[in-house]
Amino acid sequence: MGIFDSVFGKKENTTTKKEALPWIPLEAMDQLEAIAEKSNGRPQVIFKHSNTCGISRMVLNMFEGSYDMDLDIDLYFLTIQNHRDISNRIAEKFDVLHESPQLLVVKNGEVTFHTSHGAISDMDFTKYL
Q1: For the segment 78-125, what is each residue's pLDDT rounded down to a tens digit?
Q2: From 3.10.450.710, 3.40.50.2300, 3.90.1150.10, 3.40.30.10, which CATH number describes the 21-128 domain?
Q3: How many Cα atoms are found within 13 Å in the side-chain-facing hemisphere of 92?
Q4: What is the dihedral of CA 97, 99, 104, 110, to 10 degrees?
Q5: pTM for the full model?
Q6: Which of 3, 44, 50, 78 could be joined to 106 by an S-S link, Cβ 3.0–4.6 Å?
Q7: 24: left (phi over 0), alpha (psi -120 to 50) or beta
Q8: How many CB atoms sit inside 10 A of residue 121's CB?
């Protein structure tokens, strides 16, 4: 043990590699019809993210850190800057106001729950599945 270890304490490597979320990139307009159709069998979740917004990055990190890997859903990820047209179509198709970051739960072809910004990390969206 070196002098700095005795003064400051030796840091143990406590970081663990968390399993990557099963994101499905939302990159094509026709995926929205597939999402609506698949939502008849199991919930579909869309996370809309802005890669230029610090709040969106913070909310995404918190969402990823608390995500339950045992959920039986399809999890879609939309980057607003890359596909604003898809984001606009989501607002039209599912009758929700565009926000970012935004989380939407689609069941039986309709958005049954949506929230945005800090409420994403404050809310247990699983009760809407």
Answers
A1: 999 999 999 999 999 999 999 999 999 999 999 999 999 988 988 888
A2: 3.40.30.10
A3: 9
A4: 20
A5: 0.84
A6: 44
A7: beta
A8: 17
